[in-house]
Amino acid sequence: MSRSEPVTLPPKVTVFYHYFHPDDVVSARHFSDLCEGLAKRGWEVVAKPCNRGCRDESITYPKWEEWAGVKIHRLWRPNFKQSSGKGRLLNAFFMILRWSIASRHVSRHRREVMIVGTDPVLSVLVARFWKLIKPSCKIVHWCFDLYPEAPIAEGMFQENSRLIRLVRGSLKKAYKACDLIADLGPCMAQLLSRYQSQAKTTTLVPWALVEPNEPVTVDPNTRKELFGEAQLALLYSGSYGRAHSCAEFLELARHLKPNTDIQFNFAARGNRIEELKSQVTSDDSNVHFAGFAPESQLEKRLGSCDIHMVSLRPEWTGTVVPSKFFGALATGRSVLFSGSPNSAIAKWIEEFKVGWVLSKENIKEVADQLNRLASSPEQLLQMNRHCHQIYQTHFSKDHLLNRWDQELRELL
User: Fold this and answer.
1) CATH number, domain 12-207+396-411
2) What CATH architecture is 220-394?
3) What is the pTM of this model?
4) Whole-angstrom Cα distance, residue 381 to residue 250?
5) What is the pLDDT of residues 339-379, one digit of tens each?
């Protein structure tokens, strides 16, 4: 290369998310995968998480580290408890402040993209500061969940309270500073449209943490442990919290109880799991509970059933999108969804023919279909192959990372 030829630097992306590798919290895994994938696709990637663990704030990580081609610059923050409301807000304030200060050190002569997530809450507020300091910087918001819409759905705040109006006013300005907003589905996109941002919008969902090349073969020991000798097994696996409800699942189980070949199992953890257990009586002989599976056993657990149960309370529609849906399809299993027919998952189930949308009105209809399915193993195998193919085509990590790479390069 001659001295007169300019040196072409690779495009740079800086990622702001609260937690990162090696933390195993699910959203941190997704952002770590995103950074690793972009580095493999030719980007210079810098991640700026906090220096503390998610579930145990006493765990701290090195300030500087390089992993999988990603430069990690961890920012110190105080040891506030993320599990408490006050601690969560203090952590959010501190991280947004640190990320805003970091905008002073960016190059003004470099093609650069900044990606900010939704942990801690209101992280997108940092977009305004970055746009002021470096107007040429392209800002992307990957919206995993919506605030203040989520706490409103939970009943913590009133829709038209003074605090909510103030927060939404600040968010409106932050969203307008973004060049691209990536949502998790049309129901979330609809809620985001209220902020009237001029940013480009697209749907980029989180992929499954386990991606087998073929529909998972049932492990007989795991199957028997969870479902006994059932011909048709339905599994709820994952978190069970404020956003979830299993009332329709229990009603369906009671409707199907005469058929002992159909069994239900809830392998969940969360702040409402004890409430769920209290709703199950000794008469519910086809409903069982299991502990939470470690990641090393996750593929066997997810592949032990025939159908995965996924739920989202209707008032939470658009604020979050349960990632269990993608994990189910990745293992080659169909989905029984309890939630609003307007939710993204309900729309995908109908569009791709990968399961059922359960409601109080159609429980008998769904029960009849499951009774027929229990005696048709060949139909089950066909459904498994179809669901796996749909995942590989539309929701796989490689497919979505290619879309991320394309979207970011188009911004530049």
Assistant:
1) 3.40.50.2000
2) 3-Layer(aba) Sandwich (3.40)
3) 0.91
4) 26
5) 999 999 999 999 999 999 999 999 999 999 999 999 999 99
